[in-house]
Amino acid sequence: MSAQFASTAVVGLRAPKTTKRSQRSVSVRASTQPMWFPGMDAPQHLKGELPGDYGFDPLNLGKEPKDLEWYVQAELQHGRWAMLGVAGAAAPEILTKMGISDLPNWHDAPNYQGYFTDATTLFWVQMLMMNWAEVRRWQDMRKPGSVNEDPAFSGNKLPSGIVGYPGGIFDPLGYAKGDLNKLKAKEIANGRLAMVAFAGIMVQYDHTGVGPVANLVAHMSDPAHNNVFQAKFIGF
């Protein structure tokens, strides 16, 4: 109650002509919307409606609605790529340590000679396939619903009016039919964590010369010496 009163009082001081009704709405919004820094007010363009919205935009990059739409999609895609990247960096190392396979460290994967074809062919196949998928995603962002039906399997459509989220053949378990907002919040939270995690993987490799699993094992075996402040161990 005191926080609400303080928030209303501050609004009143900053804008003397503001009506009591608008003051009350700002106070309620400030008390209900979770914030990245407790006690701060969210920017006007972040109203708690987006998945994972904690009012974080100190530079007001999303002040323009069109810019905000693009940033939302950019963060979503970067988060998804980061989740795949973290899994792709850790899984081969785990399988190799378990003796199931003999795969290279994520950093050495581009020079691996065990693929079914050469790296140049893989690169161009990836570029062509990703270009096709990304162009369709871009078209859907520009005009929502314009490419919401699967071109190969007719009848499989994305959720109506929802950009950037799967449906149809890409949602075989029917998650989109449930609490989609809750799943969106979980996905963006995991995506943000993955982006930070992969940045950590790159920094760790630069300092230690080994992968994330080896770094984790070393840290757990001797946390006092193998940590971020003393990252000098290589080839354990």
Automatic annotation (TrEMBL):
Binding positions for chlorophyll a 4 per the UniProt entry: N131
Binding site for chlorophyll a 1: Y54, G55, F56, E75, H78, K186, E187, N190, R192, Q204, H219
Keyword field: Chlorophyll, Chloroplast, Chromophore, Photosynthesis, Photosystem I, Photosystem II, Plastid, Thylakoid
Residues noted as binding chlorophyll b in the record, renumbered to the chain: W36
Pfam families to which the protein is assigned, alphabetical: Chloroa_b-bind (PF00504)
Locations listed in the record: Plastid, Chloroplast thylakoid membrane
Keyword Calcium (UniProt): no
Binding site for chlorophyll b 1: R80
Sites where the protein binds chlorophyll a 3: H78, E134, R137
One term of GO molecular function: chlorophyll binding
Binding site for chlorophyll a 2: W70, H78
Major place of residence: plastid
Binding, chlorophyll a 6: K186, N190
Binding site for chlorophyll a 7: H207, F233
Membrane-spanning intervals of the chain: none
GO cellular component: chloroplast thylakoid membrane; photosystem I; photosystem II
Record-listed chlorophyll a 8 binding positions: H219
Key word Plastid present: yes
Residues involved in chlorophyll a 5 binding: G167, E187
A Gene Ontology biological process term: photosynthesis, light harvesting
Biological role stated in the UniProt entry: The light-harvesting complex (LHC) functions as a light receptor, it captures and delivers excitation energy to photosystems with which it is closely associated.
Family to which the UniProt record says this protein belongs: Belongs to the light-harvesting chlorophyll a/b-binding (LHC) protein family.
Protein's name according to its UniProt entry: Chlorophyll a-b binding protein, chloroplastic
Species for this entry: Ostreococcus tauri
